[in-house]
Amino acid sequence: MARIGVGAAMDERRVDLHAHTTASDGTLSPTALVELAARKGLAALAITDHDSLAGLDEARTAGARLGVEIIIGLELSISHAASDVHLLAYFVDPAEPQLAARLARFREVRASRGDAIVEKLRALGVDISAEDVRRHAGKGAVGRPHVARALVEKRIVATVQEAFEKWLGDDRPAFIPKEKLDAREAIALVHGARGLAVLAHPGLLPEETRYKILRDLAALGLDGVEVEHSRHSSEERRRLKQIAAELDLLTTGGSDFHGENKPDVDLGYGVGGNVRVTVQTLDVLRARASLRR
Ligand code: AMP
Ligand code: FE
Ligand code: FE
Ligand code: ZN
To answer: Which residues surround ligand 2, an ion (CB under 5 A)?
Structure first.
């Protein structure tokens, strides 16, 4: 641990604030993910599955055993300025009734969307069943990656990527759109559950609108922005830091690890070591979240 300034302890241990498990579209179970985090020497790990907190309890059990602090997280999809915008939520209270109800609804909607995608595929002559898909989703939120893995398992396609290219991609024949929250509703939901709302990977948004979206969300009460991310260039990070300072937003980061679904991304390290987030960042978030309690 390095010390700077007037005795302020800077905890430089590494953390990862963005990672997915099999409860959404990651390929590692919560236990396997936390085991990997421990092997990588991470002090803390936020589990940020899409629309689901189902991986949390298992991750905490593993975290307690292995000495990795588990942070509650969630990644919500919102629709804003005609874009698919991802919002990370940290430190939410899983028992807060409105959030719990929303997540239960997401689970139902995703399950029936999964069934509908299967129906479309069957109508297109693809031999796959709802059961094949459910097995890959476990108790988490059913998504297209689970359908893709079922298609690979049945040897209908060779890779997950091919499943998206042939059938599941946004403009492909078995695509079914997802119901999305609007930005105001999503931020209010996170704040209502006493959590922090952070714009995920703005660098993946269309270049023409990404900073406008950031400013719009900041006006709606956004708490922070993900600056460190596997797919952000150093130029992008510099720009985001500058805007975050202007808008008084916290800055966060994470690898956005998905296991074999994004094989070039390494937990805690990003792509070729391009992500480094420390306990310091987490401590700032935690302090801000504690003001909500
Ligand atoms: P869903 O939430 O069910 O619409 O699935 C979205 C997820 O599918 C994303 O988080 C990605 O992990 C994955 N995905 C979307 N497009 C592709 C693609 N072209 N190739 C591989 N994975 C994709
Ligand atoms: Fe994902
Ligand atoms: Fe995302
Ligand atoms: Zn993510």
So the answer is: 25
Output the CA torsion sign for 148, 150, 154, 159: positive
Helix axes 97-123, 183-192, angle to 10 degrees: 130
202 C-alpha to ligand 3 centroid (Å):
9
Atom 2, ligand 1: which residue's CA is nearest? 143
169 lines ligand 1 (CB under 6 A): yes
| Distance in angstroms (rounded) separating the CA atoms of residues 12 and 133 | 41
Measuring CA to CA, how many Å separate 56 from each of 28, 183, 241, 253?
13, 24, 30, 19
In the predicted model, is pLDDT for residue 2 greater than 80?
Answer: no
50 in contact with ligand 1, CB cutoff 6 A: yes
Contacts 24+ apart (CB under 8 A), 57-61: 58/29, 58/30, 58/31, 59/21, 59/30, 59/31, 59/33, 59/34, 61/31
Alpha-carbon distance 252 to 225, whole Å? 6
* pLDDT, averaged across the chain: 94
- Strand 224-229 vs strand 250-254: parallel, antiparallel, or unpaired? parallel
Residues 228-252: pLDDT tens digits? Answer: 999 999 999 999 999 999 999 999 9
Ligand at minimal distance from the CA of 159 is 1
Look at ligand 1, atom 3, and give the residue with the nearest C-alpha. 143
Q: How far apart are CA 122 and CA 128, in angstroms?
A: 7
